[in-house]
Amino acid sequence: MTLNLGPAHHALLMGWLAQEAVRVLGPIPSDDLLRDAVRRYGQERGSRMAQRALARGHTLSWTSFMAYKEWSAPDHPHSSETLATTPHWRMRVTRCPWNDAWQAEGLGAYGRYYCRDIDLAVVQGFNPALGLSVGHTLPEGSEGCEFAYTEYTLDSEEEVRLDALRGQLGDKVVMPWSYHLGHLYWTVRRVFEEHTGAAGQAIAERALRRWEERFGTEAADTIRGHEKTDWRTPPDRESKSSSCEE
After folding, report:
1. pTM to 2 decimals?
2. With 0-12 CB in 10 A as exposed, 13-18 as middle and 19+ as buried, what is 77?
3. Spatial distance between the Cα atoms of 208 and 219, rounded to a whole number of angstroms
């Protein structure tokens, strides 16, 4: 059976992990733990992107960063607008499927734990020399998530370079959503366990049970099956089935 997983599944898993942590631990300890977990998760993803880029002989530039993104969700509503192209590309995301899922479930207040750190963490994991400024975010009630990419000019020449590299890579660097869900769950769970022991394990397991009640045991088992995955190293993407991809 093909699992039609996507951003909404990822968003709700994050939302319920955060909600359960706040309920059990309180807002202040949870804030620190969730920040640590999201940063670790993002930096590991960025590091995998960098490893893939270097393995193919590409520099760790903004062009490579944009092309080597591990997720794809073309069938899910996502809109943005460019605020400036030079000297730094500045843009605002006005709609994304993560925020849509949080708002529909009443989890907007918990989505901010993800959005405040995830993008910068991925960039830092890819190349700490690249600079990204993150402004207001949708879960905070802003009209959009604002980003400024330091010393990155998204002009017509860059668009040509980026399109060429994306065409060269195709979907070889895109991971199935089951992989992203497993990465999120096990990273958050382990950070909780490192700091709170059995309480952290219980928090994560309760959040996953809630997710399983909504999406089914088969889907939850794809997450459980990633317990031994090493998130610091990219798997051999070419040998993986794409049956779980959008």
Report:
1. 0.93
2. exposed
3. 10
Q: Omega into 87 within 30° of 0, i.e. cis?
A: yes
pLDDT at 236 over 70: no
Beta bridge partners of 218: none
Average pLDDT over residues 63-72: 96
Domain extent listing, the chain: 7-230
